[in-house]
Description:
Pfam families: Polysacc_synt. The protein is 84% helix and 0% strand. It has helices at 3-24, 26-56, 59-72, 77-103, 105-112, 122-133, 139-151, 156-182, 188-227, 236-274, 281-296, 300-319, 323-350, 352-359, 365-375, 378-394, 398-423, 425-451, 456-483, 493-517, 520-524, 532-538.
Amino acid sequence: MSNMLRGTMLLSGASFLSRFLGMIFVIPFFAIVGTTGNALFVYAYTPYSIFISLSTVGIPAAVSKFVSKYNALGDYQIGMRMFRTGGVLMLATGIVAFLVMFLSADLIGAQQIKGEDGPITSQDIAFVIRMVSFALIVIPAMSIVRGFFQGNQSMGPTAISQTIEQIVRVIAILAGSYIIVNYFNGSITLAVGFAAFAALIGALAACLVLFWYWRKRKPFIDKQIAKQTTTHDFRTIDLFKELFRYAGPFVLVGLAIPLYQLVDQFTFEPAMVASGREALWTTEIAVINNLGHKIIIIPMTIATGLSMAMLPALTNAFTQNDQTTYTRLINQALQVIMVFVIPAAAGIAILSDEIFGSLFTLEDIEITGSLMAWYAPVALLFGLITVTAGMLQGVDQQNYAVISLLGGLLVKILFNSQFIHLFGGKGAILGTALAAGIAVCLNLARLKRSLDFSFKQTMKRTMLILIFTGMMCFVIAVLKFAFGFFLPFEEERWATIIMLLIGVSAGGLFYLFLAYKSTLLNHIFNGNIPGLNRLKHKK
């Protein structure tokens, strides 16, 4: 299997497990703090996500590209030098970001919620923002270590540290919030505040993992430096100039989804109240920006892993002007996204009631399930934003990624309130889909123009994927109709869980059967279908 696919599977697996844990923990967390607590959590966590991106200013991903580029040129020392100076920079920006977020918590809370007589107040949001802000001291410096390892095409440290970080964080969230509510009779706000503070606890655990990997890999890195024959004599200021040229676009790429969510958080409550839907706004924002969002982005983990694993290999091929290799990498990356994310998003849409009812509650399922069904296809757009932006960065077109994402964001800002007035919660989803779709189309157009790249092969295989996905959805719909005579899955949670298991198993296996028998998987993965070859060898 190619290094890119191996790295993709490793990072996607870790990212999937991290997302899965992030989704699973919401189930008991929902039982502890309810819809209001989940809405409060996301009102504070979205600004935190933005501060994380701003505090790192795209440096970790840029370091990955920088290290990969100069490793390809045979200069390993310059990558180590960049890692050290970048680490100091990240520590400083993390501390500054912590202070700014902590001190501006009241202002951020007041801008998101108007009035103090609702279920969530601006003081509640400010408290949770202060609690989560402590993680900013650690995470930027930690993330640059991950970027350095990825630049050396070593994906294990990132994958393992991400997994450990999420496991420790989830345990801290659930244990802490449960004890606060049930043993100390603490408020929901206090429980959510501790849940936010758990981001720091998880980050410290990840730091320990990365430190262990560093001690293990350092001798090998020293040997590479000792054997190098090429040296670039850059001043520190020149290093930073090149680094920030790479880094700037990474900031907005990382900010894309949190910024879409932040637009919702500033416009959702006022627009819902103004349109006479004040009784629904906490439920719908909890689905769109937290509960349902955690489910629909699980398919996107493949895109995230693919983007992270692809960038060093794509940068290497582009630096060496290997057109055959970078054309193959781009085609393969797009097709991997399509073959996994399209059926996953369609499956979430058709089983949205069963998914939300099984994991959370059947109460108001006609609202919550419907919202998640509308939101599910946006997972494909989120995945394509991540991957196409990574492609542009890999071929030195990173500035255009900024233009496309800003264009999409502007559309979201201009039309979001109007869409919410017209369609309620679905309007916020429509605004996000329109913004993300514009960004994706602009990125793909730029790739085609700058590389004279043809999407013909990808489009043909996408058509086949859509046909198989349609057949899968038909099978699931028939099963839902048939089992509806025996299972009260619209009323009983146990029946909903059974229907969900039947739908996912039958639909997923049917789709994979079609994709394998048609040789679609074989063509996309160049004969190296993840997991299948190993199974054949065992036989």
